[in-house]
Amino acid sequence: MKVLRLPDVVARVGLSKSTLWRRINDGEFPEPIKLGPRAVGWLEEEVDAWIKSRSRTANSE
Predict the structure, then answer these.
(1) Which own/partner pairs from 11-15 qualify as long-range (CB within 8 Å, at least 24 positions apart)?
(2) How far apart are the C-alpha atoms of 47 and 49, rounded to whole Å?
(3) Which tens digits make up the pLDDT trace of 34-43?
(4) Contact 6/19 with Cβ under 8 angstroms?
(5) Angle CA(55)–CA(57)–CA(61) in degrees, nearest 5?
(6) Whole-angstrom Cα distance, residue 53 to residue 5?
(7) What is the spatial order of strands in the sheet that 33-36 belongs to?
(8) What is the 3-class SS of the chain, one letter each residue?
(9) What is the pTM of this model?
């Protein structure tokens, strides 16, 4: 299980940091996990699943 930090997530999904955080707050992107007092990360599997779900949505439109 690999944990991705914010720069890696931003690079993978192609969204800005502010858009990413807005989608998290809106429940449209996986919640980060707390790594420490001031550090968060995302599970690689969850980010990859989100990307796959978005590609299916785009293909069905």
Answers:
(1) 12/47, 12/51, 13/47, 13/50, 13/51
(2) 5
(3) 999 999 999 9
(4) no
(5) 115
(6) 21
(7) 3-4, 39-43, 33-36
(8) CCEECHHHHHHHHCCCHHHHHHHHHCCCCCCCEEEECCEEEEEHHHHHHHHHHHHHHHHHC
(9) 0.85
